[in-house]
Every structure is written in C-alpha cells, then in structure tokens.
Specification:
The chain has 5 helices and 7 strands. By secondary structure, the chain is an alpha+beta fold. The chain has a 7-stranded mixed β-sheet with strand order 1-2-3-4-5-7-6, with helices on both faces. A hairpin with a 5-residue loop joins strand 2 and strand 3.
Length: 167
C-alpha cells in the first residue's frame, strides 16, 4: 500500500473518497461533507504539526482509503487514530489491516499506546480493531468508543514517520 500525505491541494481526492463511502456517513447519521468543508478540515489539520492526514493507494495507484491520526494525543506517548476509512467497494480486502500494520511500523520512537476511535454504533468497526489486537479502553457513547493497543516502542527508534510522498 502506498501512502501519500494529504496536503491542502489534494482535498478534492479526500472528498471523492467520502463520496465513494456514503455508508460511513449514514452510519453516523450525518450528511456527506461538501468539498469546501473537506478543504477547511484539511487546512485545519495541515496547520497542526501533530495531526497527519494520509491518502491510501493500492499497488496500482488507485485511491482506496484515508488515515487521520494525531501524534502525542491525548498525552505524550500516544497516537490517536481518528479515522481509518476504506472505500466501500474495496472493503473486506484486508486493506484496513494493511494500513494499520504499516502505520504501527512507522510510529515515532517512544510511542506507548495507539488509540482508535469507533464513532457511533458501529459493531463492525469495534470487531475490526479487536482483530488488530486493540482492546476496549473507554465507552464515550453515544458518540464513540475507544480501543487501545500498548506498544512500548524504544526511544532509540527514528522519529520520522517513514517515507511518505507529498504530491
């Protein structure tokens, strides 16, 4: 899987991914965000050095998903996955699992815990994180539940998040 950093001028690609995944927004009981809302969110994320938005592409370069996570949140040593989204027509192909494994392999040194949020009533999302070795951490329903995986990465690891293309 190829990972591309989501920079502001690529916001239309994220919007097209959202359009290809209407079931996620239906699950949340919300409408699909329009392009200007997506652009505003991407700009906000881009201004936060701890937040990372990435586009996920298959081996043929086709956009299959996105990953939104924050380093050092909610506390130092944590990485919080806000959203892992795989396009509906590409789900059940282990692409989400692949994205999680790749992220875990390139986390910054000193990462102690990875948190993953499951928004709304989403038992499928909960099962996904449990299959990845995450355990239930906190019930904040009706809006979300949190799952966590403890890593205890040594401080000697390089702090960069791997080689990610920026175009």
């Amino acid at each position: 899987m190829e990972v591309t950093r989501l920079v502001p001028h690529l916001a239309p690609l994220l919007h097209s991914l959202y359009q290809a995944t209407p079931g996620y927004f239906e699950l949340l009981g919300s409408r699909l965000p329009n392009l200007s809302e997506v652009q505003a969110d991407v700009n906000t994320a881009f201004a936060d050095p701890r937040r990372h938005l990435e586009l996920l592409h298959d081996e043929h370069g086709e956009l299959v998903g996105s990953l939104d996570y924050k380093v050092g949140y909610p506390q130092e040593g944590d990485v919080t996955i806000n959203l892992l989204l795989i396009r509906e027509d590409r789900q059940n192909q282990r692409l989400g699992e692949q994205a999680v494994r790749q992220l875990e392999a390139r986390l910054p040194s000193g990462t102690q815990r990875v948190l993953a949020s499951v928004l709304g009533e989403n038992p499928r999302g909960s099962r996904f994180w449990e299959r990845q070795g995450y355990t239930f951490e906190l019930d904040a329903r009706p809006s979300m539940m949190w799952y966590a995986k403890r890593l205890n990465l040594p401080l000697a690891r390089p702090t960069q998040l791997g080689n990610i293309a920026t175009d």
